[in-house]
Amino acid sequence: MSSEPSAESRARLDAALAMTMHPEHPELPEDADPPECPEPAPGSDEPGFSEHLPMLYNVVYCSRANAGIDAAAVDRIIATSHLHNPRWGITGMLVFGDNIFFQWLEGPRASILRLMALLRTDNRHEQIIMLSEVEEARERLFPQWDMELVDADQIRDVLTDALSDETLAAHDADALRALLTGIDARLGAAPP
Length: 192
Description:
single chain; alpha+beta; five-stranded mixed β-sheet; about 35% helix; globular
């Protein structure tokens, strides 16, 4: 029995990881529509706001990639994100390195929560560690990035920094240490 997912399964998972949230997807009700995203007001990168900052929901997480995830798979995720995220008002960045995904997502609360529900069912990764979930009134950090792939050379530094967060749950800190230990084993470095 092959552990390789079928082309149909791979396409469905690409869509899930990249936020397709489309009425044609069975995971959503047929009347699912993206949130209203008017054009940005002059002087603002936020749709429909000028004097008041919008409420943005942002999530930061990391996860371990399962076997078979390579640069081509990540490129498909980014391409699908570019296609669908603008419709849902989602921006962010994805870092992939040492078999670890690190992602920052920002946008309307409903869109981000739907995406996270799909991500939790995606078999291309495991051990999702929520590093941050915040809803706040602010400008977007990534207003022009419907999803940007960022160089992964510094993934160890990013995870080490996340581990230093005193509000991190104990099980998440243990999971981060396990991810770092795996990276260190591949690099021949001392574990955290």
